[in-house]
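#lab-general

N.A. 3:47 PM
ok so I finally got the sequence cleaned up, no stray characters, all 559 residues accounted for. can someone with queue access submit it? mine expired

B.Y. 3:52 PM
send it over

N.A. 3:53 PM
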Amino acid sequence: MCAKATMEDFEAMLNESLEMDTPSEGSVVTGKVIAIEAGQAIIDVGYKMEGRVDLKEFANPGEAPSVAVGDEVEVFLERVENSRGEAVVSRDKARREAAWDKLEKAYADEARVEGAIFGRVKGGFTVDLGGAVAFLPGSQVDVRPVRDAGPLMGLKQPFQILKMDRRRGNIVVSRRAILEESRAEQRAEVIAKLAEGQTVDGVVKNITEYGAFVDLGGVDGLLHVTDMAWRRVNHPSEVVTIGETIKVQVIKINKETHRISLGIKQLQADPWDSVERDYPLDSVHKGRVTNITDYGAFVELEAGVEGLVHVSEMSWTKKNVHPGKIVSTSQEVEVMVLEIDSAKRRVSLGLKQTLRNPWEQFAESYPTGTQIEGEVKNITEFGLFVGLDGDIDGMVHLSDLSWDQRGEDAIQEYRKGDIVQAVVSEVDVEKERISLSIKALANDNFSEAVEGVKRGSIVTCEVTSIEDGGIEVIYNDMKAFIRRSDLARDRADQRPERFQVGDKVDARVTSVDAKTRRLGLSIKAREIAEEKEAVEQFGSSDAGASLGDILGAALKDRD
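B.Y. 4:20 PM
back already:
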C-alpha cells in the first residue's frame, strides 16, 4: 500500500515537472544556433529538443541571411516533435508574432513604423514590417502617381498604419501619409519665411490650362495664366516651360490652406500707367487682332494693352455681320481711340472711323439733283433699295416712282437686279439715308397742265367719256372727272347723257391738289359764278329786270 502510494506520487511529480519545463506548442521560445548545414540552421531550443530553420528566414527583404553559430534567436514552436523526432520551429512566425505585438501598440499610439517594400501585387505593393506583411495600396505610395517604384523596393522607410486586423492577418499601410505630414511641416517652414510682395526664384514643376505650379523650395505656388504677362496669354506654355527657373512675386499667401499665388507681370511696369498719354482720344494707331467674339474684336495696341472694337464700330455699311467676316485673328489693322477707362482698364476702339464716312463722300460727289445709276438690291412694301458707290444704298419711295401711276402699281414693274436711273433728292449723313427719285427724271405733266390755273379759274375741257356718275374730260392732256351733281345748276340738267364725246365744255376749277394730282372741275359752279357776276353787274330783279334779261345782257356783253 505504501509502495503503491509512493509510485503514484512520483508519477504526479514527474508529470508536473514536464508540464512546467516543456514549452507549449504555438509559443515563441529562445534557442541557440548550434550548427549551419545544407542551407539550414540547427537550433537547440532546450528540453533536449532541436529544430531546423531555412537560412532565408533570417534575411530581411533584399538582404543576405544574417545568422551564425552561437547566436541566440527566437523561434516559434509549432510542434514539439515531428516524424524524425525533431522540433518543428519557424523563425518567420516568431518574428511575425513579435512584430504584430509591436505593430498593435504603434497603431494604438498612431506612431510610424519602419518597413521595406519587397513585392508587387494587384492594386499595390507588399511591405515587410519586421516580420509582418502589410499591403500598400498604389494610391498610398506617394503624393503624386508613381510610374516607377523600382527605386523604392527594399528601401527601409517609415509607414503609417491605416488599418489592421490580427485575426484576419490584414494590415494596410501608407507611405503617402508620411510624405504629406513631412511636406506640411516643410511647407509651414517655407511659408513662414515668405511675405506678400517678396520676389523669389522658383522652378516650374507642372503646366495646366489655367496656369503653372512653381516649386519654391519645398512648397508649390500657383502662377495663374492671367498673372504671367500684361498681354493676353492663350496658354501658359507661351511664357514658361517645365523645369525652367523663373523669378516670381508672391502675390498672396493663405496661412490656413497654405496656398500661394504668384505673378510674373507684377515684376514689370504696368503699361496702363501711360495709356492715356500714349493713346489720346481720336488718335489712330496700328494694332493686331488677338481675339474675335460675337460682339466685336480685341485689338492689341502694345503688350498688355488691348482694346475692343465693338461690332457697331467695325464698318460703315456692313450691319448685323459677324466680326469674323470683317477681320481675322493676327490681322494688323488701323484703329481710332474712342474712349479710355483706366479704372476698368478698357479701351474702346473704332475701325470704321479710320475710313471716310461713305455718306459724306457720296454727298460731296453726288449733290442733290444729280442723276445716278444703280442696281435694285431689294424691293420692299414701301419702295426700292438701289446700290450706290461706296457700298451704300439709296431708297426710292413708292411716291417717287411715277408721276402718273400709284406707287403700289408702279413698283410691280421692277425686279431685283434691274439697273435703274434716278435723281438724288436728299442725303442725310447723320441718319445715313439717301433718298432717290425715279419720277424726277420725267417732266411733271400735272404741274405743266395746271400751270397758271388757280381755284376759280374757268377752263375749257373736252368730253372723253360718258358715265352714270358723271363725265370724264381732258384738259391739257390731263384727265379729270366732273360728277353728275356738278354738271348743271338746275337738277333737271344734271344728266350725263346730254353730253357727247368730243363736246367742248367750260368748267370752273374748284381745287388743284398737287399731292393727289387731281384737278376739281364743276360746270354747276361756273353757272352759279356767272349768275352772281351778272347780277352784280347789271342789277337785280328788284330793279325791274328779269333774270333772263340780265343773263341775256351779260352774255351779249361777253360776246
